[in-house]
Design brief:
By secondary structure, this protein is α+β, with helices and mostly antiparallel strands. It has eleven helices and 13 strands. Helix content is 34%, strand content 28%.
């Protein structure tokens, strides 16, 4: 229906039924898109659950549904976190109608202004926390969405730009295959690194979770200390994250690098969960859990996804990433089912990582934009 004939009403999402509609609208919107794989409702609800999300201690979030008469035509959420100075909109979905998008953007911004008197800019699509989950608008590579990666129709870009959003960060996802790597070249380099130093690589072990939680926290807090919006991780929070990931952790694709006994780097990956989750239609209820266990046994996973890299400052210019990439390539080469690794969420502000990916002949597969609007 053309925008001039629409009668829009925005309703805050509060009740259990409204939350169900918030999730179901996206599935209905993409019901005819063969590439679409629904996020898990439980993963998204966790973001809006104060008891489970420490980010609520320094902020708040709200979400709305847009109705045209009795029909849902869009949805959005707004977030703010005063600790990280993050203020923005996320979980946007809408029909291809600018009037709907404008009404949703207006609603979120109006609410944020009541909470943050000095608000002069917002980001979108964002949410609480780090950029590895539900972050950014897909603008290239509209296929094979990965777990907790935003997927949207191509027309969304125009809806954002017509409202006044401009690109702030370009984040690239690439894919590397072991058969394309020049092992001889990298072996000469990595052999020299290990020979001249005291470096050793070790993969994660569930039975030693306390040690690896400590090492991850140590590396992360040093590696990201100088980054914008940095908030240090506590070991308690990291342990909780590892515990939540326990059912999907594959030990030999989570790698740590040590200088003697000093933790200096990590490269953590997970299996491409969406190859399993595409059968669940977004719900990890009891039936969904049974289906998950069934398809986990039956599905031959062909891809893993690198979710986070980290190197402490003292080792950031020594090429130690190559040691971990080669280790990961070796693991893939030894698995008859695995074909590639996805190298996710590398910002345009990180040319060193882009150069490294180019050197292993990684191919760009997806691009997401983090948009910004000045108010």
């Amino acid at each position: 229906m053309p925008g001039n004939y629409m009668q829009l009403t925005l309703v805050e999402v509060i009740s259990k039924q409204q939350k169900k509609l918030f999730h179901q609208f996206t599935r209905d919107l993409y019901v005819h898109d063969p590439e679409f794989i629904s996020h898990l409702d439980q993963d998204i609800e966790r973001i809006f659950t104060k008891e489970e999300n420490s980010e609520y201690d320094a902020g708040d979030a709200k979400r709305w549904l847009a109705y045209n008469n009795a029909e849902i035509v869009g949805k959005i959420a707004a977030f703010y976190n005063t600790n990280t100075h993050q203020f923005g909109l996320g979980f946007f979905d809408a029909i291809n109608e600018q009037k709907v998008a404008n009404a949703l953007f207006d609603k979120g911004i109006t609410w944020l202004k009541t909470k943050v008197a000095t608000l002069d800019r917002i980001e979108a699509p964002v949410n609480f926390g780090e950029r590895d989950k539900f972050w950014g608008l897909l603008v290239e590579g509209f296929k094979s969405p990965s777990y907790q990666e935003n997927y949207n129709a191509p027309y969304y870009k125009a809806l954002f730009e017509n409202y006044g959003f401009v690109k702030k960060i370009e984040q690239t996802t690439s894919e590397a295959r072991p058969i394309d790597i020049d092992y001889a070249k990298y072996s000469r380099f990595t052999d020299r690194l290990t020979k001249e130093g005291n470096l050793r690589a070790e993969h994660y072990k569930k039975k030693e979770i306390a040690r690896f939680v400590h090492d991850f926290t140590t590396i992360y807090n040093q590696a990201w200390e100088q980054h914008e919006h940095f908030v240090p991780f506590s070991e308690e929070r990291v342990r909780k994250l590892f515990e939540e990931m326990k059912p999907i952790i594959r030990e030999d694709i989570l790698w740590f690098l040590y200088d003697g006994n000093r933790p200096v780097a990590f490269y953590l990956s997970i299996i491409d969960l969406n190859q399993i989750l595409k059968h669940l239609n977004g719900n990890m209820n009891l039936w969904g859990k049974l289906k998950f266990l069934w398809y986990k046994r039956k599905t031959k996973i062909t891809k893993i996804r690198g979710i986070i890299f980290g190197v402490i400052p003292a080792f950031q210019n020594k090429g130690v990433y190559s040691l971990l990439l080669v280790k990961m390539a070796e693991i893939i080469s030894q698995d008859a089912d695995l074909q590639s690794t996805e190298l996710a969420w590398i910002g345009d502000f990180n040319p060193k990582m882009h150069a490294l990916f180019k050197s292993v002949k990684a191919v760009k597969t997806k691009v997401h934009y983090t948009f910004e609007k000045l108010l």
